[in-house]
From TrEMBL:
Ranges where the PafC HTH domain occurs: 12-133
Domain WCX: 246-318
Residue ranges of domain WYL in the record: 153-217
Entry-linked Pfam families: HTH_PafC, WCX, WYL
Protein name: WYL domain-containing protein
Organism from which the protein derives: Lacisediminihabitans changchengi
Length: 328
């Protein structure tokens, strides 16, 4: 009696079959009853659909249906245990898939997103990570993404944006100076692993960019923001030069030039020298140059001025001196 129901119309059967195959692929093993409950149909309708799927496929190059050209399932499990397990997939299984490394990279990114404060409901992200794991052409590598101290600061910044109020914080600039800033937060952006806050700085009375890992003691104030995002023109580039920036001449491999493009003033020419490109960049302070050079080992050399060369060379020498054979 439980299986008696009004037969599905032709269009309903087609929609059911189109939904059933990916559903069975996703679950790998599932009972007839669970499948019927999911689609709101009778177990008999599920059994008939599964039997139809098992005689469906795409003919091979000869135009005949050969072994492997049809869907197949574990018949003993289906007939004796009422369990559905597809053992051969046709056409659908030929769709492009992520490699194991590609899936691992995407899963790592999703893990990072799930750790951000605003992603309170992480069920959708967890479901997507599971689908990526099952849908990859190879088993993804196990990757873990560790949270950072910046996550709490990001949460406070987003809180100030949602409330429309200013935020205060201590900021360590590129010169190593600490200043207390009060900012109207306008936009949060990321470059690689670094997060940045762009906002109207009331100390400088201008738009400024702040690296979030250099922010400390943030405080959401009760003071309403003076400028909203639509009222302030934000430059397309994340980093904007100032009149106080210092010029530095470097030689860099052509392939690495895009990595320093933000530091090269618009319209500045480059000159080829012995297979490398000589370019002029602008930095806010010579000490800030160290991090840039360290991120491009063997690809960039500081040419001038002498003070910039000395700062980078002394910093590299100090790092090398820490690697010593003497335990003392």
């Amino acid at each position: 009696m439980a299986d008696r129901a009004v037969p599905l119309q032709a269009q309903d059967k087609l929609a059911f079959l189109l939904s059933l195959v990916p559903f069975l692929m996703e679950h790998e093993r599932i009972s007839v009853q669970e499948t019927a409950n999911h689609f709101g149909v009778t177990p008999m309708a599920v059994r008939e659909a599964v039997e139809l799927i098992a005689v469906s496929g795409i003919p091979g190059e000869t135009g005949q249906y050969q072994h492997g050209d049809l869907f197949d399932l574990a018949w003993d499990d289906f007939e004796e245990n009422d369990q559905i397990v597809l053992t051969n997939l046709v056409a659908i299984d030929d769709a492009p898939r992520f490699s194991g490394r590609e899936a691992a990279a995407l899963i790592a990114g999703l893990q990072y997103l799930s750790a951000l404060p605003e992603n309170a409901d992480r069920s959708a992200i967890a479901s997507l990570m599971t689908k990526l794991s099952h849908g990859a052409s190879a088993l993804p590598s196990q990757v873990a993404v560790e949270g950072s101290e910046s996550d709490a600061t990001l949460a406070l910044i987003r809180e100030s944006v949602a409330a429309g109020v200013q935020i205060e914080f201590d900021y360590l600039n590129s010169r190593g100076e600490h200043e207390r800033r009060r900012v109207d937060p306008l936009r949060i952006e990321s470059v690689d692993a670094d997060w940045y806050l762009r906002g109207w700085c009331h100390l400088r009375t201008a738009v400024r960019t702040f690296r979030i890992d250099r922010i400390s003691d943030p405080l959401v104030t009760a003071e309403p923001i003076t400028f909203h995002a639509g009222e302030v023109a934000l430059p397309d580039t994340l980093f904007e030069g100032t009149a106080d920036d210092l010029p530095v001449t470097i030689e860099i491999l052509p392939s690495a030039l895009p990595l320093v493009a933000d530091y090269i003033p618009d319209g500045t020419p480059t000159v080829e020298v012995d297979g490398r490109l000589r370019a002029n960049i602008l930095v806010s302070h010579y000490h800030g140059l160290k991090r840039l050079i360290a991120g491009l080992p063997g690809m960039v050399t500081v040419i001038a001025p002498g003070e910039a060369r000395s700062v980078v060379a002394d910093w590299a020498a100090a790092g090398a001196a820490r690697y010593t054979d003497d335990p003392a």
